[in-house]
């Protein structure tokens, strides 16, 4: 674990050992529930979660310089630790997820600032070490850029669906990808969120502490806001329509196309027997092979693995994507026509 | 395929295998590989593990396979079912096939064989005799097909070496035994990446999914300074050379691009992609559990051997990958296309009985254009 100074812990509170931190500062959780001065911090923690739930980033006291640093720094860490206690007590996973993501984005801002810091070398070093320790990504500084190996880049960039993150749209040289500080940090956002999320999930849930109930109840009702319902139009996406049309015409749909169609229809609840006749016009149709392959996809034969419909990105690579405007914002054909209500 | 044809192919293959054990070697880290094979007119047997050359040769002699395969992946337990194998890593592999290159020569040497009535016709989407659409296409690749495939291999190597920092000696090029080349990359930083990452790498190599901004064209307030320079590395450099042609034309062409605008630039990119993108089969590169034809084994689509190309420029598959015997055999041939093997010309044969060397007979029988008389 990294040795962190007071202001580093305030910036990256998820790196601190929560129990140890409280002990070092000489506090117990019970005190926060009973001491009127400390109780304010529970409100602050609640506020921190509320801001996150609304998709915003918690504005730190550190930024406006309204209060002295000495007072602000521990408060900053406490509100984070107490937020986790509240989340654990409420047991609301949607809130934990939103909180983790917002905290990741908050930390991202600091990481970016530290990486770009040219006056204080140690700040940059720390940011590089955090990225290495947490995500095993070795970042090197090269002139005005930060470079990482292509393989490390790919491991993270595949989580993005925007085209600018595709390797082809990056400056690649000598087995390395060149990034700005902003891009370097943005690249690990999801993992940072996952890291914070798993830290919260793995933290022990305390028994209810007197003085915490009010905020916990408020969280439970807050989380109800985020329950969503989805409706589906039932129409097939263009890639699936295209594949069916090709087969109807007796064209030779490639194996990857057949895989997509089979996996898609199985996920939509059709049976192997319902799907098999679709393939009978294929130039190389063989009923036995078709049934074998569909059963394999469905997981009823072979290893038992149920195969999922490939992502839009993969289908693009395979030349099977025929996107239309309604495909905007989906990443898998199965999401086509689904609307949140 | 008929009994007599299968027997003929098996006998010819067996003779080759017996006489050329020197060409059939287990790959490095044998223990961690999955092997598989197919016999004529039968399905695939895979999830096999093999210890050494001796065991491999035994497999060949006992089964007389039509095709033999080996994984590019390394597993802890290669002989267990796929989800228990414990995948460790996989060499990077690229497949370049003449049939994917949109070559104009293709229709001159591709025939359609009807699955219903066995009629052989020149490339057509339906049978000229019974009108069935159940057509199997067979191609007898020409020199242009091989040369064009070689060009793609060279383009690929350039990207691997310059952009991805792979050592030349870790890139091995094999003739696939039929219509193209398999390019293996060993010991690179990509050994452990998964399928989705490999798919991204394939897009990079194919020049797929580009946005105009990458090559300097902005949607709003585009300016000259962001266009690539002639000497830049990577795709921006290759793009410049392709689009500008020469340094002196750069300025003029940028002006044209700016006048034509953003959406026209997207079109330019698509055209450029056709020329400078490498035409690999992305499905092969992104599959991390595939088994590949074993070097030294025969490709039953042609009767030619998959072999390492030490000098790609000079390599001629029709003289260097044909190892079968010269012994004469009599076949009924219906092969409307002329072909050349071991520097001898054969065909065209129109429904005739001919006596030809075994290597040529195997070639046609494998292509379903002849049967044993």
Q: How would you describe this structure to a colleague?
A:
The complex is a heterodimer of chains A (341) and B (373). By secondary structure, chain A is an alpha+beta fold. Chain A folds into three domains: 6-122 and 189-224, no CATH class; 138-187, no CATH class; 238-340, no CATH class. Chain A is built from 17 helices and six strands. Chain A is globular, with a radius of gyration of 25 Å. The model of chain A has no long low-confidence stretch (mean pLDDT 86). In chain B, 31% of the residues lie in helices and 23% in strands. Chain B starts with a helix and ends with a strand. Chain B has 373 residues and is an alpha+beta fold. Chain B is globular, with a radius of gyration of 23 Å. The longest helix of chain B is centred in the middle third of the chain and has 20 residues, at 143-162. In chain B, a hairpin with a 2-residue loop joins strand 17 (339-341) and strand 18. Among the domains of chain B are: 1-10 and 325-373, Ribosomal Protein L9, domain 1, CATH 3.40.5; 209-276, no CATH class. Chain B has helices at 3-19, 53-63, 143-162, 195-206, 234-244, 250-260, 262-276, 282-286, 317-320, 358-366; strands at 35-38, 44-48, 67-71, 73-75, 87-90, 92-97, 110-114, 120-122, 135-139, 171-175, 180-185, 291-293, 298-299, 304-305, 307-308, 328-335, 339-341, 344-346, 349-357, 370-372.
